[in-house]
Specification:
Largest sheet: none
Shape: rod-shaped
Strand content: under 5%
Order of helices and strands: H
Low-confidence stretches: none
Distance between the termini: 55 Å
Structural class: mainly alpha
Number of strands: 0
Radius of gyration: 18 Å
């Protein structure tokens, strides 16, 4: 029973980390697209 609870906790933490990385990636992409549309310099040229 304890192992099952620990596994659920581990999976929940991993899933939260993946969601955080996805949110950061989406924010970065949105920022790049906004700057590109506004004519700002970006790393993409």
């Amino acid at each position: 029973m304890l192992d099952n609870k620990q596994e659920r906790s581990r999976l929940a933490k991993a899933w939260a980390g993946e969601r955080q990385m996805a949110a950061a990636s989406n924010a970065y992409d949105a920022n790049v697209m906004t700057e590109t549309a506004a004519g700002g310099d970006t790393l993409l040229g």
